[in-house]
């Protein structure tokens, strides 16, 4: 069984920073693409950033220049460093991983971590 556990969310003032983490655990043979998403109530879940197994990254327009996605392959952990946060960044942030297990490759979601940007 594969499990994704997020942490690092919380309340921060505008202009502040947070660093989200997502640890993938279980009977894993390999981890391919990893992504961060976010969702506010009543809206669709949006893609925030992507990092491939080779380390290539891509960002949504709203994240470019403020957010940095990274991964520690040895620790099976994904990160999202968020700087210069704005109230519009308030959302539940989810990680997603494409994981290779013995029966094939599947994508899994974390449970989400709340980020609130407010003064």
First-residue to last-residue Cα separation: 40 Å
Question: Uncertain runs with pLDDT below 50, 5 residues or more?
Answer: none
* Order of secondary-structure elements: EEEEEEEEEEE
Q: What Rg do the Cα atoms give?
A: 14 Å
Number of helices: 0
Strand content: over 45%
**How would you classify the quaternary structure?**
single chain
**How helical, in percent, are the residues?**
under 10%
Average pLDDT works out at 96
Query: What's the count of strands?
Result: 11
Structure, described:
0% of the residues lie in helices and 58% in strands. The chain contains no helices and eleven strands. The strands form two sheets. Strands 2, 4, 5, 6, 9, 10 and 11 form a seven-stranded mixed beta sheet that branches. The protein has a four-stranded antiparallel beta sheet with strand order 1-3-8-7, with no helix packed on it. The radius of gyration is 14 Å and the shape is elongated. The model has no long low-confidence stretch (mean pLDDT 96).
């Amino acid at each position: 069984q594969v499990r994704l556990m997020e942490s690092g969310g919380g309340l921060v003032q505008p202009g502040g920073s947070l660093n989200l983490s997502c640890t993938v655990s279980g009977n894993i043979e390999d981890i391919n693409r990893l992504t961060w998403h976010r969702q506010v109530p009543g809206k669709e879940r949006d893609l925030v950033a992507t990092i491939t197994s080779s380390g290539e990254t891509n960002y949504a327009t709203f994240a470019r220049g403020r957010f940095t996605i990274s991964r520690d392959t040895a620790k099976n952990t994904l990160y999202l460093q968020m700087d210069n946060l704005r109230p519009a960044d308030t959302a539940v942030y989810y990680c997603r991983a494409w994981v290779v297990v013995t029966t094939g490759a599947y994508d899994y979601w974390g449970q989400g971590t709340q980020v609130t940007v407010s003064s």
